[in-house]
Every structure is written in structure tokens, then in C-alpha cells.
Design brief:
The complex is a heterodimer of chains A (594) and B (851).
Chain A (H helix, E strand, L loop, with lengths): L1 H14 L3 H21 L2 H31 L6 E6 L4 E12 L3 H5 L3 H13 L4 E7 L3 H4 L3 E5 L3 E5 L5 E5 L4 E11 L2 E4 L2 H51 L4 H36 L1 E6 L5 E5 L3 E6 L4 H18 L2 E2 L4 E2 L2 H32 L4 H13 L4 H24 L14 H26 L2 H9 L4 H30 L2 H6 L26 H11 L3 H38 L4
Antiparallel strand pairs in A: 1-2, 1-5, 2-3, 3-4, 6-7, 6-11, 7-8, 7-9, 9-10, 12-13
Helix pairs in contact in A: 3-18, 7-8, 10-13, 10-15, 11-13, 12-13, 13-15, 14-15, 15-18, 17-18
Chain B lengths: L1 H5 L8 H36 L7 E2 L3 E4 L7 E6 L5 E6 L4 E5 L5 E5 L8 E4 L5 E5 L4 E15 L5 H4 L6 E4 L2 E7 L2 E16 L5 E9 L2 E8 L3 E11 L6 E11 L3 H4 L4 E4 L5 E5 L4 E6 L7 E7 L8 E6 L5 E6 L3 E9 L9 E11 L4 E6 L5 E6 L3 E6 L4 E7 L8 E4 L5 E5 L3 E7 L7 H5 L14 E2 L10 E2 L2 H32 L2 H15 L3 H18 L1 H24 L2 H7 L3 H27 L4 H6 L6 H22 L8 H32 L17 H25 L3 H9 L4 H12 L1 H17 L2 H6 L17 H8 L8 H37 L1
Antiparallel strand pairs in B: 1-31, 2-31, 3-4, 4-5, 5-6, 7-8, 8-9, 9-12, 10-11, 11-12, 13-14, 14-15, 15-16, 17-18, 18-19, 19-20, 21-22, 22-23, 23-24, 25-26, 26-27, 27-28, 29-30, 30-31, 32-33
Helix pairs in contact in B: 2-21, 6-15, 6-18, 7-15, 8-15, 9-11, 9-14, 13-14, 15-18, 16-17, 18-21, 20-21
Classes of the chains: A alpha+beta (594), B alpha+beta (851).
């Protein structure tokens, strides 16, 4: 009844449209379209799109920044020779430039003649001027590594064709032009091309001798020293076990005396050899003239590399570039880590990560197998699962604290008491070392492996297990032959993710064994080959140390960028490998799906 | 049939299979449980290390060690590091070396030929000074020594002792310390030549081992206070030390009416002397200029009537005056900076700590040589040990005899207390971490040299005497600050981006973009820290104004682009709508460019031409900074108002978009005007952001950390939020769209509310990550433990503090354990956050499944 009524009412309205109602209808329609526009929420939607764009731009920008700086570091730049208006002469590589507003006093300090020119330059730049940071090197002469040069100061700028850049083992780079080539203190060549030729003839042999000398100094002397130290420790342990005036101690001491005599002879021989090499190397020297006319002599043995920066050409530059990369990847650091290579850091990172993954994978898989296959499901298991999940979110520094307190100070100190008592109070295992660092990171990454493995195990269809059981296989046989192979991609992924996380983690390592300069690698050719107690260098820590604690951070910055690029490269390729492996193994196992 | 017979299968499982199964089961059980246990050890180990901080301190019952002749009493005593020998100076003017175990007298020494009228022993060293009736003083050194002797040189019966045994041997206490070595411990007393300071008897002295050499304050019976600095020079011919003394003197005025003061004391740097009368009057003398001592102030240490001071001493470091009175009250007075007071040197002796009242008068005080702990003896034989700085009573005990305790000493390393009440008693003290308590960690504490209680973290300092200040609050504050600023930047970014990704991005694009952002998560944080500290921080420093401007221009250009987009024909829009994020990126870059163009203009008009200078001082108009705060608010208000009146614009559909654009531009202008008015109004009212959330600019600051750490937590929040949004069932979306809702309405009103708990857990996980992040804050936050919300200032977080200080902390020291406590706090914080997130997420999953 009422339904019919209302229908009637509406019908009558439609039948007799009043002007008022028509106006209302139009308004309603416009309002509706306005609302549609609002409802599409385009502005807000664009804000969300903007957020995504921001995130993407940030990561792309960051990677581009690292890539640009990291790859550009080793490309040789030309050496400019600048004469300033106040008569200074300097030469070097331009590292970067920026715009700034010089104070009026700076202009007033310029010589009379240059002032007007500078003012007009400044006026053109609306009061701002470009200034360039020039790496001038020659630290022993100038006391500076860098100098700022403003554009309005420049009177003359040239690219001298014979400007040499010399990378030295001490004092950093040298910029200058060759003045003479000395053999035995007497100039044998004074004409630039001849000097250069003489230099190139001599440098190979000199460097070869230098490397031989270095090997004698570090390796051979180290060997003898280690034998002596072992002898001393034998005496000490005899003393501790039997007393100071015991016959055992006397025996150890007499044995040591013989060894010592032998060692002294050996030392003498090595020293003689080193001296001979030094004498031969000291014969060759390069006399260099700096931009401002000072002359200095550089021993050839002190030169890592010298090149004519302004006449390299593309091929020469490329060759130099690759040589520098090679040096960076394979050589040891020098000049407080700001020059040379990062080989020990790469080695340390890789060794630590390897040991870590050897530790974390079996235990992570065991724990996951237990949780998924053996533990009775229930509140306890799911609590453990949540707890393990949460451990993945615990700050890494907390694991570092645990590592230092537990591994180094308790386990390590205990081991020292038991096994290395004669070395005390110098700790052997009782301080940070590669083993403790690996163990700490293993703990840190364990949740990653457990979670990934568990997911992989859970993803194995029940039907496969049941099929295996139906064929009469035992539980372990099922796990071993059916479940584990199928879960392998997931396990591998977890392991690689753990490695990627471990390789990039620095905070805990600062507490448990990463150092800025390790004298020896944790794995080397002296018995017992694997020195788990040694501290080690790490790429991440290297970045922190160089960028944050280096005295000459401007000079170190390019190195930090390159190291950063390397670290990001390692971590990213590990991650990509995880993705690739997952995809590949999935494809392989997808055929067995039924 | 035949084939079955031929290949007959055994029905039973082979034993090797059984064995393998059992072994595997056992191995997996043991290994699995073991691994899980090992992981959970982390937490228990942290607790185990940190727990002793809160253990209760104990003072053993005093046991009688020795007694002397009836008329003789001990005036001062000390015990050696190992507790094996005790040296006592008695009223009979002799030094006695006692066996620390039995109390038997090993040796008697009488180095002083005159009976002194006053004496003082310096804290921590064996140095002492004696004053005599002829006005002279003599320095004396009483020191414990250890000599080592080979077992072969010891008699047969001594050699049967095993390692660690102690026994009396030739008036020494011997201990076997190794397989063939004995340590013989004794003491020696040497006296220096007299130093004449006065002609009349010395009434009181106080010796201080100042950095410049021994210094002492003396008071003669005429009421003249002298401070003497002694310097030692060695005569190379005779090999003898020669003492030269330099003095300053001042006659104390109150002596005429009140008599002589009972105590004089000299501060640790020998620059202040304090004379204290029994009735509580203290006169502080400024002797920074030795030649001309001046009275700095006179104050009354006892406010109550008929209460007199009964024991006064300076605390270790000799800066705090401890005063015990006849009512048993014990108070600490500190020289604190008080610029408002008209004292001679701007300092004022302030009552900093009140250690409460005991039943009986305080009769003896002794300070620890290691910490700011104090032992007090009372007239009723009670013994109490306090930690003064934290105002804690650590432990108490009472002697059996109940007689007044007249002399007291604290053993080295606070291992025990020696007391004299007619007999010598010793009590073991177990107080390894007296300065640690929850209150000291989290409440302001009044440290020496400060005008009021403060939150402080300063774990080490240049001088040995300075006490460590272990207030965790500044570090917790730093952690919160880092978290808040990075969340402010990271959370909106991540959540908005995840909404766009899950709701408006085509699946194939999404499959590309999501891993890219997730790759950010694997970026080592040390890389971000390095970039933040060495690349971004200097760059940001140059362009603060530009960045502040960008916060407004970027949203503006994006919104303008959105409105412009609406004006495009439908055909174009539907074709390109999958690329809105690319266009938004373009708009964003345009906004950034605009910010860089406008930045200098903004800096000139709002910030007096130089933003950093504007931040520093209170010069310039406060409105500029306030505008930054009022603009977002007014923009929101105007937006709300604009949407209210949206319907009242009658227009045909074609020009609607143009109207919307116009309205948006008008609203922007309205918002700017409103914000400017509001900012000027607030500035006129005297409001100024400077000194609050913005202040002096430091290169490594919270803004840099906020950006970079925000960047670091974006991927994790983004991933979890995106997962939550995607797992909202498709039928909900379909339903909503079928009812006529737009995709945006569906996203905001259906998907986001449904996934709200998932988004919440994403934020929680991000929070946990931000709390514990170490490398970024370590490198980019400057690491100064200040407590200001200033965006342009640094801070120090718990995690960075651990990374900096733990390698140098002495194992098992209070500092070490406190750092473990900090680690535990971090652990607990992140664990709670993650658990909350996990529980919420699981509940959400269940609900989403039911939908």
C-alpha cells in the first residue's frame, strides 16, 4: 500500500516538473560531478605517487652518486699549473669546485692591478665566484695537501705537457716537472724526454727490488721472530709448570740459546740482503722541480707510479685507470689507509663471511628442521617461532655487546687460561678476533636462516611427504631425500641473505675484532694456516675508519667512495645471486611438482 | 608369482635405516634445541652481566681485630691493597704494623720525636702531615711495600705453604704467590724535614696531594689560616730531596668571638680552604692566588638550634664537604656555581645531598679512595656506608660493644671498613657498584661542580678524581630523538608509497619496483652513515633554507601537477594513468628546482639573509620560523574548508577541473596569507621556535640523521605495509568498486582500514629498526649527549654510545655493566616493539583470511 503510494508520488512529480525541482535536479547533478572529481582523489593520489617517486629517486640518486664518485676516483685528471694574481705558482689536480661569496676583505687583499678584474668577475656572477679545490700534494714542501683557488685570483692557467704525477710510498703525491735523473748522486740526464726514458728503464728493476726487500722485511723476518717467540714461550711454560729454577726450564733455556744464535745469524743474513738491495736502489733518483721552482730529489724506490698527466691520451688513461683498480683490489693500504689497496679488507671480509656461513648454515637448518619437522606444534613452538622472528629485529650492536662479553671475555679468556697460559697477560683468544666476529655475526644472522629454511620446509607439499611415507621411507629418509632437496632453494636463499647481511654489518665488528690495520691476514702460509684468533680488516669498518677517523679526510674521500662501491657491489651481487638462485632452483624443481 | 618369490622383500626395516633415523632425530633435536637456546642466551647473558649493578650492597658485622694498651687509642689507620697488613697511628705517637688476619703487632715505628698537636692524612696516598707546638709542620710518608723473594731463599718450614697462604714471617706478612716466589708485605714510614709555618702551636692541618705537589692548610692557635704549597727538588749531588714551601696567610676574624675553628680543609686543587667551627659556621677562603687569600663566603652549616658539628671531612676528590652533626644527620655541601650570589669567586657552598639522620651523633667519617662513597661511624657503635652523589645508604652494621667509633678507614677498592672504638674492628664491605641505581640512571643527579641536579652522561674524564656521570637519560633521549625525526620523514613516505604501489600500480611494474626498494634494505648502514656524514651533512649545511623551502614547494608542485592532470582530456588520462608516478617524479624535481631558486629569496625575506645566523641568535623576526610551523596547519585548515564548500561552485563538467585548479591556487594563496598572519600573531605574542625545536646549527645534526635513517627504514616499512595492503582480499575491492566507489575511495575507505593493523605492525618494525640503528647515528649525529629537541643539533644514542665506549670500558667495571644495561634496554625495546608488531600482524592475517 505505502509502496504504491510513494510510487505514485514520484510518478506525479515526474509528470508535473516544477521549475524549482528542475533547478534542484541540475544542482544535484553538478554537485555529483564535483564530488566525482573529489572522489577520484587525484591530488592525494598524486601525493602517494610522489612518495613512491621520492623513494625511487633517493635510491637511484644514491646509487648514482656512489657509482659516479666510486668509478671516477681512479681516472687520471690533468695537472693544471696556475699562476695567481698575487704571484703564487701552484700545480695539481682539480678535485672539485663550488660557488661561494667571497668577503670584501678578500678582494681588497688582492694586488692593485688584479682588483678591478676580480670585481668585474664577481659582478658578473652576482657576487658569487667559483673556487676550485686543487690537490697540490708535495706535502713535505708545502705542508698542505690541498689548496682552494678562486677564479678571480687566477692570472694564468696552463697544462704543462711534462707535468708528472708521482704516487709515492710516503708523503702522498708529488706534482712537478722532471729536472734531472740521478745515478749515484750524479745527474745522467737533464733533458726531460731523456729523463723520462731513463726513469722508465730503471723503475721496473727498482720496484722489483723494493718488493723483494719488503718480502724479506715482513715475511722472512717475521718467520724468524715467530720462532724466537715460540722459544721464549717454551721457557715461560716450563717455568710455570716446574718453577723458575727447575731443570726443565734450564733445558728449555739452553735449547733457546742455540736457537737464538741461529736466529741472530739469520737476521744478520737478511739484514745484509736488505742492505744490498737498499744500496742498489738508492743509486737511482729523480730530481723534480715543483711549479714554484723548488727542487727536490725523490728516490726511485719511493715511487709507486709516475705518469705524465697531461699527455696520457685515452689509452694511457685507461691503462692507468685499470692499473689503479688492480692495485686497489690486490695491494695493501699505505699512507694511513688513504692510498694503496684494500686487499686485506677484502680478504678479511670474505674470510669472516665464509667462516660465518659455515657456522650459521648447519645450525640454522638444524633449528628449522627441529621446529618444522620434529617439535610438537603448540604454543611453545609458536612462541619460539615469534621469538626467533623478533631476534632478527634486535639491533646488531646488541649482538656485538654479547660477542665481546661472552665470546671474547669469557670463552676466549677461558681458552687462554687453558691453552695459552704462557702468553698471558697478552690475550690470544681473549680479545677480538675473526673467530669471535664470525660467531657473533652467525648468531646475528641465524634468525634469517631459520626463518627462510622454515618457510622453505613449510612450502614442501604434504602430499610429497605422504607419498614418501607410503613408499615405506623412514622419517629421516623422507627428510633427506624428499624434503631437503625440495627446500634447498629456500635454504640457499636464506644462507645468501644471511651472508649479504653479515657482509654489510659493521657495528658488532667494531667490538669483536675488526681493526683499522691488521699486520697479518687471518689465513696465510705459516702453520697452522688458519689463525682464528687474529683480528682482521673489514671493508665496512674500513669505510667507517677512513671516512670518520682519518686525519686527511679530504684525500681519503675518493678511497671511501671506491671502497663503498666495492662493498655495495659485493652485497648487491650476493643479493642478486640469492634472487637468481631462487628463481633457477625453483624452475628446476617445478618439474617435480605433481 | 615366481618373480615375487625371487625378489623377496624383507618386511622389516633395515637396521641401518633405523639407526640413521634415530641418529638424525637425536642430532636434529639436540642441534635444534641447542641453537634456539644459544640464541636466547643473548638476552640472559646481558641480564647476567647487568644484574650485579642492582645487587644489594653488604657490610659484614664488625669483628674485633686487635686491641692496644688501655690508655692508647688509634688516631688513624689504613690497610693495604691485599688486606694483609694494617698500619695504625696511635695516640702514643707511634705507628704500628699489624697483621691483617690476626691483628698481632708485627712492627713498631716511632718516626716523630715530638708529640704533634695536629695531624692530617691525605686521601688515597700514605702522605700525612703533622703540626707541632713550635709552629712547625712535617710531611710524612707511610707506605705499604711488597718485596718478592725466591722460594729458595725462604726457610724450609715456610716453603710448605701452598700458593695463596699467608703467614707471619720476620715481622712481615708473607704470601706464596707462585710456584717459587713469596711476597713479603710490610710498611715503612719516612719523615721529611720540618717546614716552619708559624711561631705558635699548630691547631689544625689538612693535607692535599694537589697536582702541583703536596699542599696543606694549617691553622695556628692565633687563628691565622695558612695555605702552603710544597715543591720538591732533588739535589743531584747528595741525592736528597729538598723541600721548598710557599705560603699565603689570612687571619680569621670570627676567632675573636667564637674561638678557634675545629677543622680546616683544603680542596683537591689546593685553591680553596674551608675552616669549620663546631657550631656550624664555615668560612670558605679563596686561595687561587696563594699570595693573597681572600674570604669568599661565610655560611652556617647547621640550621638547627643546639646541634653541633661532630665530624667533618672532604669527600674523595676533595671538593665536597661532608658534615656530620650531633643529631646524627649527615650532609654534603658542594661548591657550586652561583652567579647570582655575591661571593668572591662566583661559587657558593650549597647543600647538595642530605643523607638522612641516624639515632646517634656522627663521630667519625672516612671516604673511599675510589668512589664518592663515605663510611660514617656513630656514637652508638653504628657503622653506615653511603654513596653520596646518589644519596644512597649502601649498607649498615653495628659493633657488638656499642661504644662510639672514633676512627674509621675505608680499605682500598672499598673492600672493607676498619673502625676503632677502643678496639680495632674490621668489617667486609661488598659494594662493587655503589653509583649504580635505577634512580641514578634515570633521574637527575647533583654532581660536583653543577648548580643543580642534572641528567648527565660522562663516563670518563681526564682526571682520576672526577666521578663518572652515568645518567642513561641523555642517551635514551638521543635514541628517541633519532627515532622521532627519522620516523617523521620515513613513515609517511613509506606508507604513502606502499599505498600507491599496491593500489595504483600495474602488477608488472610493481614486480619491478618492489625489489628495487627492497634492495635499499640491504644497503650496508655504514655506507649510509658515511654518505650522511661526509656528503650530505656538508651539502645540507650549505642549503638549509632551500631544504626548508622544498618541504613546501614539492607538495605544491605535485598537487599542481595533479590538478593539471585533471584538466587533461579523459582519453589522455586513461592512457597514461599507469605512469603517474613518473610524472610525479618530474613534478618533484620541478619542486626541488623551485626550492633551490626560491631558497635564497626565502632566506632573505624570512630569515634575515642568513638562516644559520638567524638560528643562532634571537635577532631577526621570529615569524619566519613560525611560518614553517603554521603553514602546514593553515594548509590543512584551508583544504578542509575548501572541500566543504566544494559543491557550491556551479559549473558544467568540462570546466570543473579548471575550477578545481583555480580553487587550489586560491586556497594556496589563502593558506599562505593565513599562515603569515598566524605566524606574525604568534611572534607578536612572543613565541619563538628558536631555543626549542630549532636552534644553533651544527653540521652533524638530527635533520641529517632523520633524512638518512628515514631513508634506511623506508624499505622495511614499505615492504611490510605493501604485503599487508596486498593481502586485503580482492573481493572487498571488487565489491567497493561495484558499488560505485572510485579506486581512491576504495583504497582509503576499504583497503587501508582493513589493513590498518598490518600497517601498524609495519610502523612498529620500522620503529624497532630506527631505535637500534648504530652506524648512521654514530657517524652523522655528532655524538654529544645533549638533551635538546633542536633539529639542527646533534645527540648521542644508546647504540652509538655502546659502539664508542665499550671497547675501552674496563671489564666488569660499573661502566662496562652500565653499557650492558644499555644494550639490554635496546634489546628489550626492540623485542617489545617487534613482538607487538608480530602479534598484531598475525591477528590481522587471521582476520584478512576470514574476510
Amino acid at each position: 500500500m505505502s509502496l504504491a503510494d510513494s510510487r505514485d508520488a514520484r510518478a506525479s512529480m515526474r509528470a508535473a516538473p516544477s521549475p524549482l525541482a528542475a533547478a534542484a535536479a541540475t544542482r544535484r547533478r553538478t554537485r555529483a560531478t564535483t564530488l566525482t572529481l573529489q572522489a577520484s582523489g587525484e591530488p592525494m593520489l598524486w601525493l602517494t605517487a610522489g612518495a613512491l617517486a621520492t623513494a625511487l629517486l633517493m635510491i637511484v640518486g644514491l646509487l648514482a652518486l656512489v657509482l659516479a664518485h666510486g668509478t671516477g676516483t681512479f681516472w687520471p685528471s690533468p695537472v693544471v699549473r696556475i699562476q695567481t694574481t698575487d704571484g703564487r705558482l701552484l700545480a695539481g689536480e682539480v678535485t672539485r669546485s663550488q660557488h661561494y661569496r667571497p668577503a670584501a676583505a678578500v678582494i681588497d687583499a688582492l694586488p692593485e692591478t688584479a682588483r678591478a678584474h676580480a670585481r668585474s668577475l664577481l659582478a658578473a656572477g652576482e657576487g658569487a665566484s667559483r673556487r676550485r679545490l686543487v690537490r697540490i700534494g708535495n706535502y713535505e714542501l708545502t705542508g698542505e695537501h690541498f689548496a682552494w683557488v678562486s677564479d678571480f685570483e687566477v692570472a694564468r692557467q696552463t697544462l704543462p705537457p711534462w707535468a708528472l704525477v708521482i704516487e709515492r710510498r710516503t708523503w702522498g703525491r708529488f706534482y712537478g716537472e722532471p729536472a734531472a735523473f740521478h745515478i749515484d748522486g750524479a745527474p745522467v740526464a737533464t733533458e726531460v724526454a731523456e729523463i723520462w726514458q731513463r726513469y722508465q728503464e730503471a723503475i721496473g728493476a727498482v720496484q722489483e727490488r723494493w718488493h723483494r726487500r719488503r718480502r724479506l722485511e715482513t715475511h722472512d723476518v717475521g718467520l724468524v721472530n715467530r720462532r724466537l717467540e715460540a722459544g721464549r714461550l717454551r721457557i715461560r711454560s716450563a717455568e710455570m709448570a716446574h718453577g723458575r729454577s727447575s731443570p726443565q726450564r734450564a733445558q728449555a733455556e739452553s735449547g733457546f740459546a742455540a736457537e737464538q744464535a741461529q736466529a741472530t745469524a739469520q737476521f744478520e743474513r737478511i739484514r745484509e740482503e736488505i742492505r744490498a738491495l737498499d744500496v742498489e736502489n738508492a743509486r737511482y733518483a729523480l730530481r723534480m722541480r715543483t711549479a714554484d721552482g723548488q727542487e727536490t730529489t725523490i728516490a726511485l724506490a719511493d715511487i709507486v707510479r709516475a705518469y705524465r698527466a697531461n699527455s696520457l691520451g685515452i689509452a694511457g688513461s685507461l691503462q692507468l685507470y685499470l692499473a689503479r683498480w688492480w692495485e686497489f683490489l690486490t695491494d695493501e693500504p699505505r699512507e694511513a689507509n688513504s692510498e694503496g689497496g684494500v686487499f686485506p679488507a677484502i680478504f678479511g671480509t670474505v674470510a669472516m663471511t665464509l667462516i660465518m656461513s659455515l657456522l650459521v648454515t648447519p645450525f640454522g637448518v638444524l633449528a628449522a628442521l627441529y621446529l618444522r619437522e620434529y617439535a610438537r606444534g603448540g604454543i611453545a613452538t609458536s612462541t619460539v617461532r615469534i621469538a626467533i622472528n623478533n631476534l632478527a629485529g634486535v639491533p646488531s650492536i646488541v649482538f656485538g655487546v654479547f660477542g665481546l662479553g661472552f665470546f671474547c671475555y669469557i670463552v676466549g679468556a677461558g681458552l687462554d687460561q687453558l691453552l695459552y697460559a704462557e702468553k698471558l697477560p697478552t690475550p690470544t683468544f681473549g680479545t677480538g678476533g675473526i673467530l669471535w666476529a664470525s660467531l657473533t655475526l652467525a648468531l646475528l644472522t641465524l634468525p634469517v636462516v631459520i626463518v627462510a629454511t622454515e618457510e622453505a620446509l613449510a612450502a614442501v607439499p604434504k602430499s610429497m611427504r605422504e607419498g614418501s611415507y607410503a613408499c615405506g621411507a623412514s622419517k629421516w629418509q623422507t627428510i633427506q631425500r624428499i624434503v631437503l632437496p625440495r627446500a634447498l632453494p629456500g635454504i640457499m636463499t636464506g644462507m645468501i641473505l644471511a651472508i649479504a647481511r653479515g657482509a654489510g654489518e659493521v657495528a658488532p665488528l667494531m667490538l669483536v675484532g675488526a681493526v683499522k690495520l691488521a699486520p697479518e691476514l687471518p689465513i696465510d702460509a705459516t702453520s697452522p694456516f688458519l689463525h682464528l684468533e687474529r683480528s682482521f680488516m673489514h671493508l665496512g669498518f674500513h669505510i667507517y675508519d677512513l671516512g670518520f677517523q682519518s686525519q686527511n679526510s679530504e684525500a681519503a674521500k675518493p678511497m671511501v667512495f671506491t671502497t663503498t662501491l666495492l662493498l655495495i657491489g659485493i652485497v648487491a651481487s650476493l643479493n642478486l645471486m640469492a634472487i637468481w638462485l631462487r628463481a633457477r632452483l625453483r624452475r628446476r624443481f617445478v618439474t617435480s611438482h605433481f | 608369482m615366481t618373480s615375487t618369490r625371487r625378489h623377496r622383500r624383507s618386511r622389516s626395516t633395515r637396521s641401518s635405516v633405523r639407526l640413521a633415523d634415530a641418529v638424525a632425530a637425536a642430532l636434529i633435536r639436540v642441534g635444534g634445541i641447542g641453537t634456539i637456546v644459544a640464541v636466547s642466551t643473548v638476552c640472559f647473558f646481558l641480564i647476567w652481566v647487568a644484574a650485579p649493578l642492582f645487587g644489594s650492597e653488604e657490610l659484614g658485622t664488625p669483628a674485633v681485630l686487635a686491641s692496644l694498651q688501655p690508655q692508647e687509642s688509634v688516631v688513624a689507620m689504613s690497610i693495604d691493597d691485599t688486606g694483609s697488613t694494617v698500619l695504625a697511628y696511635t695516640s702514643a705517637n707511634r705507628f704500628l704494623l699489624l697483621d691483617g688476619a690476626s691483628g698481632s703487632v708485627l712492627e713498631e715505628m716511632r718516626p716523630l720525636d715530638q708529640v704533634p698537636t695536629a695531624h692530617s692524612f691525605a686521601i688515597g696516598s700514605g702522605d700525612a702531615i703533622f703540626g707541632f707546638a713550635d709552629g712547625s709542620t712535617r710531611l710524612l710518608q707511610a707506605e705499604f711495600f711488597t718485596e718478592y723473594r725466591d722460594a729458595a731463599a725462604m726457610p724450609q718450614d715456610a716453603r710448605r705453604h701452598t700458593t695463596g697462604d699467608r703467614f707471619v714471617f720476620e715481622n712481615r706478612v708473607a704470601e706464596r704467590v707462585g710456584i717459587d716466589q713469596f711476597a713479603l708485605r710490610g710498611a715503612r714510614v719516612t719523615v721529611e724535614d720540618p717546614i716552619a709555618v708559624s711561631r705558635i702551636p699548630i691547631h689544625a692541618v689538612d693535607l692535599t696531594a694537589a697536582p702541583s705537589g703536596p699542599a696543606f692548610a694549617s691553622l695556628d692557635s692565633g687563628g691565622v689560616l695558612r695555605v702552603t704549597q710544597v715543591s720538591r727538588s732533588r739535589n743531584f749531588l747528595t741525592g736528597k730531596d729538598k723541600l721548598t714551601a710557599e705560603s699565603g696567610e689570612l687571619a680569621l676574624a670570627p676567632v675573636a668571638e667564637r674561638g678557634l675553628p675545629r677543622w680546616v680543609s683544603l680542596s683537591g686543587l689546593a685553591n680553596q680552604a674551608i675552616a669549620v667551627w663546631k657550631d656550624g659556621l664555615a668560612v670558605r677562603v679563596d686561595v687561587r692566588d696563594l699570595a693573597e687569600p681572600r674570604i669568599a663566603e661565610e655560611i652556617d652549616l647547621v640550621a638547627e638550634e643546639d646541634v653541633t658539628l661532630t665530624a667533618v671531612t672532604l669527600l674523595n676528590g676533595k671538593n665536597t664537604l661532608m658534615a656530620g652533626d650531633s643529631s646524627g644527620r649527615l650532609r654534603a655541601w658542594m661548591r657550586s656555581p652561583a652567579p647570582a650570589m655575591s661571593t668572591g669567586d662566583g661559587l657558593h657552598l650549597m647543600l647538595a645531598h642530605d643523607l638522612g639522620r641516624a639515632g646517634a651523633a656522627v663521630t667519625a667519617l672516612a671516604t673511599s679512595t675510589r668512589t664518592r662513597s663515605l663510611a660514617a661511624g656513630y656514637a652508638d657503635g653504628g657503622l653506615r656506608v653511603f654513596h653520596v652523589t646518589t644519596e644512597r645508604e649502601l649498607a649498615s652494621a653495628r659493633s657488638a660493644a656499642g661504644k662510639p667509633i672514633t676512627a674509621l678507614a675505608v680499605a682500598p677498592a672499598d673492600r672493607g671498613v676498619l673502625a676503632w672504638d677502643g678496639q680495632m674492628m674490621s668489617a667486609l664491605l661488598d659494594a662493587p657498584h655503589p653509583e649504580a641505581s635505577l634512580r641514578a640512571y634515570l633521574r637527575p643527579v647533583w654532581y660536583e661542580g653543577y648548580a643543580a641536579p642534572e641528567h648527565m652522561w660522562q663516563s670518563s674524564s681526564a682526571s682520576d678524581d672526577a666521578e663518572p656521570k652515568l645518567g642513561l637519560w641523555p642517551l635514551i633521549f638521543g635514541t628517541l630523538k633519532a627515532t622521532v625525526y627519522s620516523m617523521l620523514f620515513g613513515v609517511p613516505l613509506a606508507l604513502l608509497a606502499s599505498i600507491y604501489t599496491s593500489e595504483f600500480l600495474r602488477p608488472e611494474v610493481r614486480a619491478r619496483i618492489k625489489p628495487t626498494i627492497e634492495l635499499m634494505a640491504s644497503l650496508p648502514s655504514v655506507v649510509l652513515g658515511f654518505l650522511a656524514a661526509l656528503v650530505f651533512a656538508p651539502a645540507i649545511e650549505e642549503s638549509v633554507a632551500q631544504i626548508a623551502t622544498a618541504f613546501f614547494t614539492v607538495p605544491f608542485t605535485i598537487l599542481t601537477a595533479a590538478h593539471a592532470w585533471q584538466m587533461l582530456p579523459n582519453r589522455v588520462r586513461s592512457r597514461w594513468q599507469g605512469y603517474r608516478y613518473v610524472l610525479a617524479a618530474g613534478a618533484l624535481l620541478a619542486g626541488a628546482l623551485a626550492a633551490f631558486g626560491l631558497g635564497p629569496v626565502v632566506e632573505r625575506t624570512l630569515f634575515d639573509g642568513d638562516m644559520r645566523q638567524w638560528l643562532e641568535g634571537s635577532s631577526g623576526n621570529a615569524a619566519g620560523g613560525l611560518l614553517m610551523l603554521t603553514l602546514p596547519v593553515s594548509a590543512l585548515l584551508v583544504a578542509a574548508a575548501a572541500s566543504r564548500i566544494a559543491g557550491s561552485f556551479p559549473a558544467d563538467a568540462g570546466s570543473l577541473a579548471a575550477v578545481a585548479m583555480l580553487r587550489f591556487l586560491l586556497a594556496t594563496i589563502a593558506a599562505l596569507v593565513l599562515a603569515w598572519l598566524a605566524a606574525s600573531g604568534l611572534a607578536w605574542l612572543g613565541l619563538d621556535l628558536r631555543g626549542g625545536i630549532v636552534s644553533t646549527y651544527v653540521q652533524r645534526n638530527a635533520m641529517v640523521v632523520g633524512f638518512v635513517m628515514g631513508f634506511a627504514i623506508v624499505p622495511i616499512i614499505y615492504t611490510i605495509a605493501d604485503d599487508a595492503l596486498t593481502s586485503v582480499p580482492e573481493n572487498l575491492r571488487a565489491g567497493s568498486l561495484a558499488l560505485g566507489a572510485t579506486p581512491w575511495q576504495t583504497a582509503v575507505r576499504i583497503v587501508v582500514p582493513t589493513a590498518a593493523s598490518g600497517l601498524f605492525s609495519a610502523v612498529m618494525v620500522g620503529l624497532g629498526r630506527a631505535v637500534g640503528e648504530t652506524m648512521i647515528v654514530l657517524m652523522a649525529a655528532g655524538n654529544t649527549p645533549v638533551m635538546q629537541w633542536n633539529v639542527f643539533n646533534g645527540f648521542r644514542t644508546l647504540s652509538a654510545n655502546i659502539a664508542v665506549e665499550l671497547p675501552e670500558a674496563v671489564r666488569n667495571s660499573t661502566h662496562y655493566r652500565t653499557l650492558f644495561l644499555a644494550a639490554l634496554a635496546l634489546f628489550a625495546m626492540t623485542f617489545v616493539l617487534n613482538t607487538v608488531a608480530e602479534v598484531v600482524r598475525q591477528r590481522f592475517r587471521k582476520r584478512a583470511y576470514q574476510l
